[in-house]
Write a structure and sequence with these properties.
Strand content: 5-15%
CATH topology of the largest domain: Rossmann fold
Helix content: 40-55%
Strand order of the largest sheet: 7-6-5-8-9-10
CATH superfamily of the largest domain: Isocitrate/Isopropylmalate dehydrogenase-like
CATH class of the largest domain: Alpha Beta
Radius of gyration: 29 Å
Number of helices: 31
Number of strands: 21
Number of domains: 5
CATH architecture of the largest domain: 3-Layer(aba) Sandwich
Distance between the termini: 42 Å
Shape: globular
Largest sheet: 6 strands, mixed
Bound molecules: NADPH dihydro-nicotinamide-adenine-dinucleotide phosphate, pyruvic acid, magnesium ion
Length: about 750
Amino acid sequence: MSKNSRDQNAFDKAALDYHRQEPKGKIEVIPSKPHSSQRDLSLAYSPGVAVPCMAIHDDPQSVYEYTSKGNLVAVISNGTAVLGLGDIGPEASKPVMEGKGLLFKIFAGINVFDIEINEKDPDKFIETVKAIAPTFGGINLEDIKAPEAFYIEQRLKEELDIPLMHDDQHGTAIISAAALINALEIAGKKIDEVKMVINGAGAAAIACAKLYISLGLDPKNILMCDSKGVINHKRENLTPEKLDFIAETEISTLEDALKGSDVFVGLSKGNVMSPEMLLSMAKNPIVFALANPDPEISYDLAVATREDVMMATGRSDYPNQVNNVLGFPYIFRGALDVQAKGINEAMKLAAVHALAEIAKEPVPEMVKLAYNVRDISFGKDYFIPKPFDNRLITKVSIAVAKAAMESGIAGKSIENFQEYENQLLDRMGRDEKLVRMMQNRAKANPKRVTLGNGEEYNILKAAQILQEEGIAYPSLLGSKRLIQEKMEEFGITLDIPIIDPNDDANKEARKKYRKTLWDKRNRKGINEYKSKRYVRQRDYFGPLMLEHGDTDALIVGFSKSYASVLKPILEIIDKKPGVNKVAAMMMILTDKKPLFFADTSINKNPTAEDLVEIARMAEYTVKSFAIEPRLAMLGFENFSAKADTSKKVAAAVKILHEKYPKMIVDGEIQPDFALNSDHLADYPFSKLGTNPANVLVFPNLESANLSYKIIRGMKAAQTIGPILMGLDQPVHVLQMRSSVDEIVNLATIAVLDAQTKEKK
Ligand SMILES: NC(=O)C1=CN([C@@H]2O[C@H](COP(=O)(O)OP(=O)(O)OC[C@H]3O[C@@H](n4cnc5c(N)ncnc54)[C@H](OP(=O)(O)O)[C@@H]3O)[C@@H](O)[C@H]2O)C=CC1
Ligand SMILES: CC(=O)C(=O)O
Ligand SMILES: [Mg+2]
């Protein structure tokens, strides 16, 4: 089996495992109201529920006030044109529709019910959608084949008064039009002069062609091809939509159509464009190969064939991803927020121009960090925004909402757009964006990460994910025999280094590590005998590997107490220059925004000076995640410094204010006040203002450790860490019995540390 087909098989298996993992699929329903007491239940259901029922009966519009309708979209398909896979049926389309639900949620905070309808007859399909429409604030039609898709969408638009869009038509048209405007500008070509070949004459292709024409493309300059070749005057039995694109030409093949053309837009099937065809196009050709999952010509082949090609695909693993994910979350967000009666041309054009403009503006640091690039700017490799760009939700949704209001189809108005922008940004905090950003940064420059306890299932699984995802080059530390036995027992195949401190192969390593240990610790209680013995133990071997550059990062501590694993690390690894203390911080991914707790694991009873160091290190580390740190120095009193603990915290705050006046830090303050803008308003003198803190520095280890352990124990939020701060090497100690996700996340942070170290 070739490496590529092995990789493909591994990827296919990972895709099945991902979907099959409990809870199966990708979407679940979570109650959004308290439901623990008898009173809650009597409000949520009978008798309380009758009150909003009757309120809606009296005023139907109030359904937006009392139910989830206003933020609920139906993603509906009959499975007749699923991606580029064709008519695979409603059940088989469900993973795509659930996936779309996931994207709606993570990018725009919109809830989705995916609905797969077993109905190919357009009229019956329409009746079904109409019958269930009252449930929803909007409807996204998906992967319905042409020509039925045109009729279905047209009638539903006429007969329903909620935002409705066939995404394969208009989402694709909007995103690709924005990309086209920008690509033409970079290529120095004019839309009314270019010759375009559109391969595919289905839902996406026809809608794209129409939108490009409305932007100035000359219909005479389009050659459209379907599965039978160019749509020209010789063709018979064409659908009404194809009739609009008949070309007066003798050209009948894609190959001939492409000769001398400026732009190719592929919305057909994978691998139908050859290098020869690409070579026959005009200078600086624009190629949008948008079929999913395989483009009409692969990115690598296209750029290897021609240096001057301006290339986009529908895929996330190459530059210029033209995919409707850049549009539908934000178009529906804007439309829902003004209760638009539909999605009209003005709203679509507003989205096109907003998207095109974002790509031309300087790219925010957060986006660069997310993609681990020093610089990206408008040009050949970047002419359409990237999916993890926060500006999408503000700029596109606002543009769409404004267009709906101005074109008179908004059911309600937004009065204050600044406030609306803040609400949109707030929505974006409610997901695992930070984790995705960190993983993307790691993937861009993966490092060698050695994982202790290589014989544990969770460690093996984490290593597998790190390798498959390309986040790191993992290796396992431990007994080779035991690790191999366990891999076999768990059915895990992993082709990665196993480092056994006792292996004969590591004789030379043991020798040099012993010398280092001896040099560092001979006046601190380690004699020669001990140094010989210790280098055979993995708790010492791992940090020594790191110290010698034999690995880039180390993750240990899965099965032992934190203190016992930390001891050899502190004995071997130096502190960062200028740092006196080592401390640990937990990242807590709440449903609103990430919070950071310090010091959760190392300094039992820090002095005021220690707290200052901990706060400084926490500030530095949080900044490295591209988050502005706002620190609250916690106590159980607010700005009164009566108790001894409060006095200590107040003293630390005084030093911080004097020495680092630019730091956003204040206290002593109670956590519920520090996290609540209304409560903060009672202390107008505070450096936090009314903007809640995101970094909580606790007065002692017990309070920090117990606080995060309660959160972890209750599974109230995902926790990542402890992130070890102050050491000169990328090493982190796991919480005992960490989950696979926790290990992967901490290893990801270790890769980022190693990248930072490399840059220095
Ligand atoms: N990147 C993105 O954001 C998006 C990409 N797409 C991709 O576009 C493609 C089409 O989707 P959609 O329009 O919804 O599907 P449809 O089923 O509506 O249309 C498919 C079209 O492709 C044509 N076609 C099939 N094989 C060939 C071929 N060898 N040469 C030329 N044309 C061919 C069909 O021709 P005929 O009419 O003769 O049957 C038909 O016109 C899919 O691969 C899909 O993944 C779609 C939406 C968004
Ligand atoms: C992206 C998408 O909607 C498709 O390929 O069908
Ligand atoms: Mg689709």
